[in-house]
Amino acid sequence: MYGCVYFPTYSNSLKEIGRYLGYEWAWQHASGASAILMRKLWELSAQTDIKDLLVAYNMDDCRAAALIAEALGRICTRNSSMPDLVDVGSLEVGFQRTFGKFDSALPEFAKINDAAYWDYQRSKVFTRTDKTVRRTIQKSNCHEKIPTFDKEITIVDDMPAKCPKCSTTKLWRYLPRRSNVVYDLKFSDKGVKRSSVKYRYSYYKCTGCFAEMTFYERKSKYGPNLRAFLVYLVIELLLSNRKAADHASLLFGLPLTKSAVGHIKSEMAAKYVPTYQSILHQIANGPLIHADETKGVVLGGGHYVWVFANMTTVAYAYSESRESSILETVLDGFKGVLVSDFYAAYDSVPCPQQKCLIHLMRDINEDLNRNPFNEEFKAIACQFGALLREILETVDQYGLKTRHLGKHRRAADRFIEHVVRLSCATEVGRAFQKRIEKNSDKLFTFLSYDGVPWNNNNAEHAVKAFTRLRNVINTSSPKGTRDYATLLSIQQTLKYRGKEFLEFMRSGEMETPG
């Protein structure tokens, strides 16, 4: 139910939802805490009436759970027998005002309320009483001044020898010539300056079939250096599309808008799709992959961005869900070692795996803090800590070399065997035992491979790069998220290899340097 179905209760507890649905417990003071006390009392006294009360309480819990399951079934099938059911997706969310929507009883009140807002006051009232405000309003309302272009003019005046359709040699030219201004940047050792070129070209018309033609291939309004610079602002400097447009417009006096920057980003992402595919290929054919996933920023939620990285390459892949289908696509044919957390989807990849022992240690530490007096679990945690500390001392001294780490394999096997054979009396101990048994062949894989770390920090570091960008994006579409994933993969790969992202985008190269 959590995050999907919301009952009008203060919590998702069985008692609150059950009572909301009309079920009443025979025991008036029924609660989990009371049941524990009654159980202890029965163990001490062995009274039959207390036992009967506990059994009846347990039956009531089962019947209430069945009632809730039935209600959830009706909700999922949109059963019309539940009149109070509301799908939040159908709720219209209008314009959000600071103090809520003003539900006016009279038309006059609505007009008066609108007149109190800041924009109305500034543009309609204070402009008549304050000269400074009036000049500011007039200046902001002026049409945007089109920047002057540089004196460089290129005339494209090649006349076709004949019509490409009917081969007629008699052509006549439209007058006057048409023009196209291309804005760009010029980089030098001393800085960056704006460059603009006006292209003048002619259209020709065939006298036979009346087909129109020109030798000039119309260029984009923005040149390659400017496009590379805008992508650099968005991806590496983490500016929003609006701020990137404002920044470039202020520095170079260019006619840029938020939508223009978004369009350029999309075009550049499409251009570098082959580069992105090459990065994915390099990762899938390498000896090691660190993998992790995080939530995307697609409107509506439920979307994810997966991270695949090694020590020199990073790739981000968009997915509509957290299912393992993306792993089958990206890691198809991978034969190296996969380092990941304990998310079950990674178990579907048929390759040697190393689970992040930092995740395991943090979970153990959390359970210890919750159960400080559980001596059974504390003993297991101490054994794990001592084993891992000895291994890390070897790593610090010799690095991730099998010939040095191999001496710890026997101790690791003994630890796993010891935990699996334990007769744990506590719930936390049994849960940890089950976890160790399930991942017994994935906890100490790094002892048998050169260069394989015992943690997933490389992927977590790559996730942080997307998280910083996600905070700037705020919201996006599936296509927009794919564009960001493509460009960020290139930027982070270049960063891992000590290369400059802006220089690569300006160079026009399609393969990331090694």
Briefly summarize what is shown.
Helix content is 47%, strand content 12%. It is of the alpha/beta class and 514 residues long.
Poorly predicted spans = none
Distance between the termini: 49 Å
Strand content: 5-15%
β-strand number = 11
CATH topology of the largest domain: Nucleotidyltransferase, domain 5
CATH architecture of the largest domain: 2-Layer Sandwich
By secondary-structure content and strand pairing, the structural class works out as alpha/beta
Give the overall shape. Answer: extended
Mean pLDDT: 85
CATH class of the largest domain: Alpha Beta
Q: Assembly type of the shown chains?
A: single chain
- Note the run of SSEs as H and E: HHHHHHEEEEEEHHHHEEEHEEHHHHHHHH
Trace the largest sheet across and list its strands: 9-8-7-10-11
| Helix proportion | 40-55%
Gyration radius, in Å: 34 Å
InterPro entries: Transposase-related (IPR052344), Transposase_IS66_central (IPR004291), YprB_RNase_H-like_dom (IPR038720)
Protein name: Transposase IS66
Domain Transposase IS66 central: 220-476
Domain YprB ribonuclease H-like: 9-72
Structure characterization notes:
The protein is α/β, with parallel strands linked by helices and 514 residues long. The chain folds into 5 domains: 14-87; 107-141, no CATH class; 153-269, no CATH class; 272-353 and 456-507, Nucleotidyltransferase, domain 5, CATH 3.30.420; 357-448, no CATH class. Helices cover 47% and strands 12% of the residues. It contains 19 helices and 11 strands. The protein has helices at residues 14-20, 32-45, 48-76, 107-114, 118-125, 131-141, 224-235, 241-252, 258-271, 273-284, 325-330, 357-370, 375-398, 402-405, 409-421, 427-438, 457-473, 478-496, 501-507, and strands at residues 153-156, 171-173, 178-188, 191-201, 204-206, 212-213, 288-295, 304-309, 314-319, 337-340, 353-355. It has a 5-stranded mixed β-sheet, sandwiched between helices. The longest helix has 29 residues, at 48-76. The mean pLDDT is 85.
